[in-house]
Amino acid sequence: MKSDDVAAPRHRGNRHGRSEQARLAVLEAADDLLVEKGFAGVTVEAIAASAGVAKQTIYRWWSTKTDILLDAFLQDAAEDLVVPDHGDLGPDLRDYLRRLTHFLTRSDAGAVLRALLGHAQHDPGFAAVLRTRFLDEQHDRDRLAIERAVHRGQLPADLDVAAEVDQLVGPIYYRVLVTGSPVDEQFTDRLVGTFLRRVDGS
Amino acid sequence: MKSDDVAAPRHRGNRHGRSEQARLAVLEAADDLLVEKGFAGVTVEAIAASAGVAKQTIYRWWSTKTDILLDAFLQDAAEDLVVPDHGDLGPDLRDYLRRLTHFLTRSDAGAVLRALLGHAQHDPGFAAVLRTRFLDEQHDRDRLAIERAVHRGQLPADLDVAAEVDQLVGPIYYRVLVTGSPVDEQFTDRLVGTFLRRVDGS
Amino acid sequence: MKSDDVAAPRHRGNRHGRSEQARLAVLEAADDLLVEKGFAGVTVEAIAASAGVAKQTIYRWWSTKTDILLDAFLQDAAEDLVVPDHGDLGPDLRDYLRRLTHFLTRSDAGAVLRALLGHAQHDPGFAAVLRTRFLDEQHDRDRLAIERAVHRGQLPADLDVAAEVDQLVGPIYYRVLVTGSPVDEQFTDRLVGTFLRRVDGS
Amino acid sequence: MKSDDVAAPRHRGNRHGRSEQARLAVLEAADDLLVEKGFAGVTVEAIAASAGVAKQTIYRWWSTKTDILLDAFLQDAAEDLVVPDHGDLGPDLRDYLRRLTHFLTRSDAGAVLRALLGHAQHDPGFAAVLRTRFLDEQHDRDRLAIERAVHRGQLPADLDVAAEVDQLVGPIYYRVLVTGSPVDEQFTDRLVGTFLRRVDGS
DNA sequence: CCCTAATCGAGACGGTACGTCGTGTCTTTCG
DNA sequence: CGAAAGACACGACGTACCGTCTCGATTAGGG
Q1: How confident is the model at residue D80 (pLDDT cuts 50, 70, 90)?
Q2: What's the N-to-C CA distance of chain B in angstroms?
Q3: C145-164 b/e with 16+ CB inside 10 Å = b?
Q4: Cβ-defined contact of D198 to C197 (cutoff 8 Å)
Q5: Can you tell me which residue has its alpha carbon closest to the C1' of nucleotide E9?
Q6: Has this prediction a pTM greater than 0.85?
Q7: CA A25 to chain centre
Q8: pLDDT digits (tens, 9 = 90+) for C31-66
Q9: Which of A83, A183, B122, C42 could serve as a FRET partner for D179 with CA atoms 20 to 30 Å apart?
Q10: CA A156 – CA A149 distance, rounded (Å)
């Protein structure tokens, strides 16, 4: 069970701690560079220059630029994807999928995530890290509304939640990452409608 | 009197047209490098060296390494995704989704496509090219089984085929590109089952 | 046949050889940097920048900055140390030692040589290279006046020329490299006087 | 080589004055590094690590690594170059030049001195310091035997001692620093012989 | 039947960014 | 307050690829 850590630890096992100021400057610089210049514009040298930090300071704490972007992403992304709780499955899902879509397509953090997912296709090691540090947790969030409904008895207890969730969010990611076709509310609401009819009928 | 060369003399350029030999060597080298060393191992210099070709010959015909990979991919990929035609929607879809999954997760061409989709996240221009040169056509293939069923009167004519297709293949791409969780036949068959119940009911 | 063949191949860097233009720019830049900013100012990056050349072009042809300086030195140094030939030992030696002193203490090439000799104290491998590529030849020049006198019968044939030469030039190098005290004509003439009395007496 | 470290309680600072233990550890580490890894191996970081001392402790007391080496050198070198006093000029000089040669070519301290002389060629400021802190004193030692002879009336009082000394030791330094040719007793004795004949005759 | 033009191999070039090393300064913690 | 620990900004290192640029050889077609 994970409990919320109070604050980032000031000391890292050493006698002294790293510079929080440098850490934040790096993360913000990486974020900004990605949004402004795209993935190719995110170079360690550009981050260092733009953060007013020495390259060695970056390499002391991160091993690759995607490592930096991941940290930057995690710092911002947490609060953007709060799962709503109206006490009713339909509104919860409709709301959540709209938020997810907005996050993926409109927010800066979403742009970072798309870049990271892109890089994960090129680097299996990073893919694993990305899953451990974000996607697993995100998957839990994706399930939350449905699991609450199961808890309330609104849905059968033996529902294969994982598969259902993938049918809900999969098409959204597919349009965002693959086809590039727009994801409007009609589309997400339709996904929810299909799902509700599917689980009601069964 | 002709001298018998043991090895066939290498094509060394001619006035009209490019060397097919060089073209194929480049495509194959790019493909091999991706499969063996990953995306980072695909460099123009490595392709040139491994294909026994001059860098300039590459730059004469392609502008980027992803351009090469896309060409290589298109050369192989076409036949791997033939849409089956059993005359019945259910078997057609089940068969096709299995093939698609196998293509995405098991084949070398699928590995190349995943790399290209990854790169498309970093380069909107390339994303557009990828859509024009492959994904649009692929989308048509994805629709084919359903459209044939519409033609046969098995499905209503006003069906929103695009949205339906995305609900069918979206979850597969999502698992492949995002979660990395396995896509087995149970999962694809379930997608088809859900779809058939959905369209029968409506 | 005319001897007026234009034998100045203007290579710009191609399959048939390196760029003479780049080579000269590098040597001159290294030389200038040494004279203007001292040995610490001679960095590969500064040479590259000041020569308008890529670092890799430098590393393609030289392995260390002292390698460059040695090349630069050899290019200039040759003509500065011509051995005079008045047909008489005394004037020859007096003249030569004055020239040597001027070379070591006043010329840019001398400054480079002092730097190279300094580096040779830190790097035995380079010391060996320096000997092979310059000092051996220089030693021959140092002996030349005396050997001519031996040839003329002015000096005994069994003279230990090497030891005599070291007694002539050694004190000059010593003052230049170690004590830093000035080397005037009185000092060099005295060395010659001592030598002549020594070999006449014996 | 580092002596076997007994786990003695390390000095950790006190209110009055610097740590003699740290000072000696630094000097010894610098010396050892020079002898074992050459001049390039002498870095402040390596000295600090190998002496078990913080970098700041080094910078508190020395300004450059050559400063450290000079201190280390002065600590050892003094006793190696005692001027003999047999009461006779010839034996004194012969003995002294042999000792000087041995010091320059065979001893660890000589290796340090050669490195320092090398560095002096790259850094005029350091050259001045080296003269002030060692070479002037050494020059006095070089003169001592001769001056004693002048005192005894063995040599004329108006002898230009400085010039004579340079003719004696110059060739030795020249061979050591420049040509790298061996300096044997025959060579040093010959220098003395030449000198004695020269001053006797005059 | 040479002449010409396109293409080939080879590889040097000016660059950008990489990841590492050493410098000298600074801050924190301990005794 | 000196010393150990070590993070920091800075600058240079030497390497890997990038995309461009000759060069000489090769080989059709057209003159």
Answers
A1: confident
A2: 80
A3: bbebbbeeeebeeeeeebbb
A4: yes
A5: B54
A6: yes
A7: 21
A8: 999 999 999 999 999 999 999 999 999 999 999 999
A9: C42
A10: 9
